[in-house]
Amino acid sequence: MAVLPGLLKRFNSAAKKTDVSQPEQLGGSIWQDTGEVYYLENTLKLTYTANSGVVTLEKLSPDSLANVVETLDKLPSDSPFARAVTATRNTALVISVCGVTWQKNNGTVRIKALPEAALLRSTNADFSKSQAVFKHAFLLEHDDLLTPTTGSGKPGVFTYNRISPAQFTRQLARANERLAPPLRRAIPVHPDNFNSAFTEHEQTAIDGFLGAGSQPDNDVLNAKHD
């Protein structure tokens, strides 16, 4: 990431030299969230810090996830793939999925990707002291699956305590079932859409700045970025 400070410096310098019209309201968006979230269950992944570094296991199924967690717990402490220990505690296991949500503006609807629509974090392999975070507009139905939620302080983000991986994946499936079929069929987002940390517009602007000494394209700078 050493290139990032230099990139930002070039961006600020170029912006000062270029006559760019700024929007009246910075940081705002004309799009309003609907609160509807669809969880992409085929993006289920497990991330943790091992003795050899950060490890990410992607495209897991609920069954394979359970097997992976059990296998990790049985690894010798000196294994390169065993969880690293920090201050006498194992580093956390983080299970997450991507998702999509719908936004509206003057009768127009668009789909927005959510890189971490839901995640489950635990420092112990049995998940007896775990914490799950879901992004959605309203409280999920607890029934006999989840313990009562607590607010995170952020709109549309809710936290559940003491959730097992099986409860986590079942809740994802249940939430998706409640979503209207027309909305589910209209989702053009797939796991590959989350391969880049930047949107297509952002990547175009970055590529322009990283060009062989060329000045940034005014059309790119002036393009509306929601």
Give an account of the 3D structure:
The chain has 226 residues and is an alpha+beta fold. It has a domain at 29-186. The chain has six helices and nine strands; from the N terminus they run αββαβββββββαααα. It has helices at 3-17, 62-74, 165-177, 181-185, 200-209, 218-222, and strands at 32-50, 53-57, 85-86, 89-90, 93-105, 108-122, 131-135, 150-151, 157-161. It has a seven-stranded antiparallel β-sheet with strand order 2-1-5-6-7-9-8, covered by helices on one side. The protein has a two-stranded antiparallel sheet with strand order 3-4. Strand 3 (85-86) and strand 4 form a beta hairpin. The longest helix is centred in the N-terminal third of the chain and has 15 residues, at 3-17. It is elongated and about 60 Å long. The chain starts with a helix and ends with a helix. Residues 1-26, 138-148 and 212-217 have low confidence and may be disordered.
Strand order of the largest sheet: 2-1-5-6-7-9-8
The overall pLDDT average reads 72
Q: Helicity level, as a percent range? A: 25-40%
The backbone outline, from C-alpha atoms, is: elongated
Quick structural overview:
The chain is an alpha+beta fold and 226 residues long.
Task: Supply the key terms.
seven-stranded antiparallel beta sheet; two-stranded antiparallel ribbon; 226 residues; disordered N terminus; alpha+beta
